[in-house]
Amino acid sequence: MDGVRLLQQGYLAGSPVKPQTAFSLPLLIFHNSLWNHCHIGAQPFTLALNDWLEPRSQRLCAPKGKHPRQLRKPFSAAVDMFRQLEEKRKKSIFSVLGLSNQEVLASSSCPACFGPQPPNLSDYTANMRNRLIVCLDGNFQHRHQIKASRNHEKLRTPQFFISQADVDIVSQEIRHQEAQGMTPEQVQSFYLKIMNETEEAFHFHRPIVVQNLTRQRTSNVMNQHGKDVTTLG
Question: Which stretches make up the CxC1-like cysteine cluster associated with KDZ transposases domain (predicted)?
């Protein structure tokens, strides 16, 4: 039975071609609720599922074998597919209802705009209240993923998150404003400092690329200021 017919019967397949394992939608909904309220991994969840099911039914064996089937990989694939379906369902609802961005944020309960206020609200200044601050580690898994593989899964940005392209545009505008009124030497030193900080943050050991980027950005800023500058050699 293929994945489409399994879905019609209320199951999500663990693989797209000739699935051997499928999981019921109520089970995936239950796991998603647990995942939203506590820390739970796929491996312990599937092990607990096996412990609960085997005394009540026959053992689910691996194909052409007698040892129990490992459910972690197909279950993780089914969970990923379930979350993609949930995301498409939400987008379809927002599109049909014609909700504005503010209404989408309200329906998603963005904690910065619509969440509960902290008890020590008076400790913050007026411009710092009702703000959501998300701090991520810049080195989180970067080097490991680069060394492990290049076939990374495409990043899916949630509905109420700012896209990386918008962040880059604002960052460039901020740097351009900071460079206003500087001398050519100060601008060159300013962009060298930015490139050095970027190199240290992401551990990019590529001096030629960094040097070329520095040349290009420094030359662009100098041209905007209408001044000549000697690029780095």
Answer: 2-58
Which of 160, 158, 37 lies closest to 109, judged by CA? 160
Q: Judge contact between 105 and 160, C-beta under 8 A.
A: yes
Same domain, 170 and 101: no
Q: Same domain for 23 and 113? A: yes
Q: How far apart are CA 139 and CA 136, in angstroms?
A: 9
Separation of alpha carbons 232 and 128, rounded Å: 41
Position 128 in a domain: no
Count of domains observed in the chain: 2
- 99 within a domain of the structure (yes/no): yes
89 shares a domain with 32:
yes
Residue 228 forms part of a structural domain: no
Q: Is residue 176 part of a domain?
A: yes
Distances (CA, A) of 196 to 34, 183, 199, 219: 43, 20, 5, 17
For 122-177, the pLDDT digits (tens) are: 787 777 766 655 556 555 555 555 555 555 566 677 776 777 888 888 888 888 88
pTM: 0.48
Through-space distance between the first and last CA atoms of the chain, rounded to whole angstroms: 64
**Mean local confidence (pLDDT), 99-126:** 71
Vertex 18: Cα angle to 15 and 24 (nearest 5): 55
Q: Which amino acid is at 20?
A: Q
